[in-house]
């Protein structure tokens, strides 16, 4: 039995790190506090890959920008990513090592967008 670090990379082989396509930093594949690493902990960008479940059969592999935060009733935080190529959106659970200041910046930016939209909506609509 081969050590998983020595095995050739393939679809079922674990990897230690990967290169972020946005910020070009080496990213650890292990994600503390999450089931799997779905985005870069430094810039929070992701890549459009197959989602869990029957969502998309052939995603475009475009870069996914972090556009907002969601907080579940359970208190679990997630980042909403929008694909720059096809505009599809995916939600990814945050990991313990994600950049906290950047998460707050994204949350504040998305809150201000919602506030501006609601302030621009005429009364009674």
Structure, briefly:
This protein is α+β, with helices and mostly antiparallel strands. It is 17% helix and 23% strand.
Helix-strand layout with pairing:
Blueprint: E1 17-19, E2 26-28, E3 46-47, E4 63-71, E5 77-83, E6 89-93, H1 100-120
Antiparallel strand pairs: 1-2, 3-4, 4-5, 5-6
Would you write up a description of this structure?
The chain has one helix at 100-120; strands at 17-19, 26-28, 46-47, 63-71, 77-83, 89-93. With 125 residues, it is of the alpha+beta class. The radius of gyration is 17 Å and the shape is globular.
SSE pattern: EEEEEEH
Reading side by side through the largest sheet, how are the strands ordered? 3-4-5-6
Beta strand %: 15-25%
Query: In one word, what is the shape?
Result: globular
With helices defined by DSSP (H or I, 4 residues minimum), what is the helix count?
1
Features:
single chain, 1 helix, 6 strands, 17% helix, alpha+beta, four-stranded antiparallel β-sheet, 125 residues, two-stranded antiparallel sheet, globular
């Amino acid at each position: 039995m081969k050590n998983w670090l020595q095995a050739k990379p393939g679809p079922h082989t674990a990897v230690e790190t990967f290169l972020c396509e946005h910020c070009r930093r080496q990213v650890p594949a292990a994600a503390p506090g999450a089931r799997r690493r779905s985005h870069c902990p430094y810039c929070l960008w992701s890549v459009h890959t197959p989602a869990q479940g029957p969502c998309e059969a052939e995603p475009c592999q475009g870069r996914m920008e972090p556009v907002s935060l969601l907080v579940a009733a359970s208190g679990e935080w997630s980042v909403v990513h929008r694909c720059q190529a096809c505009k599809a959106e995916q939600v990814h659970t945050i990991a313990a090592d994600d950049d906290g200041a950047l998460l707050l910046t994204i949350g504040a930016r998305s809150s201000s967008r919602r506030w501006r939209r609601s302030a621009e909506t005429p009364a009674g609509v």
